[in-house]
Fold this sequence. Notes:
- The chain has helices at residues 5-21, 24-32, 35-62, 69-85, 91-103, 107-135, 144-162, 165-179, 185-210, 216-230, 240-251, 256-273, 275-282, 287-294.
- Helix content is 79%, strand content 0%.
- It has one domain (5-290).
Amino acid sequence: MTTAVRPAAAAATLAALVWQLGFGPFLDGLRAVDGAALAAASGLAVVTTVCCAWRWRTVARGLGVDLPLGTAVAAYYRSLFLNVTLPGGVVGDIHRGIRHGRDTNDVGRGLRAVAWERSAGQVVQVLLTLAVLLVLPSPVRQVVPGAALALLVAAAGLVAAVCVPRWRHLVARELRRGLLARRAWPPIALASALVVTGHAATFLIAARTAGVTAPLSQMVPLALLVLLVAALPNVGGWGPREGAAAWVFAAAGLGASLGVATAVAYGVMVFVASLPGAAVLAFGISARRLGARVA
């Protein structure tokens, strides 16, 4: 999917939802957000951002790149803000990798550290989502085993595609040192699990704020499904998330409109929680200087 098509697809998803449901669910989601929900989301964001920064630092150190935790936290907040305000959902990560690469005089390694870090987080997210979907009832429970098998085949194909002769040794070395080393994979797995848990908790708070009364045993699988789809190319976080929420909520008997309202409330909460990153940009605070103060 080309760069131009990705935001267009996300915008088309939103347009289709408006056409089917009207603006009501979007306005309901905006109105539902209150100070308590924003405070809870911001508090959870501190935890998840520190965990993300810890994961990034662990991967970077495995690749032989120095990255103080304070620097990583500041840079991660900045990248989160860029991700939720710019099309694509990855601009902040690219910016983060380039800035760190320039600081360490190795842009290629800086970008690869970010790519490995994000990939590790998404792998853990997929595994946790599949585990929950296998245990708890959801609209997709019957197809989960087939989906798991398809993901394994796709992962094997991706590994085969990446490990072409020119890249094989580099990929193997960086996987071994950055992700699979004994000192690396436990903190990466733990940090990623905490991040998924924090994001799911934020979504559940958004659901309660929007008026959802379904039990947690029903809501947790729905939250994880929506968050998994939300990682697809989007427009500042919008598009796939709202489409997925509308579908899974409707399939679960909760109504597509309530799903959209929940996704909108979640989007507003995430945006507000990312505002420390805006401060880093607005006041010209370099992540390196800020990190030096925090570390």
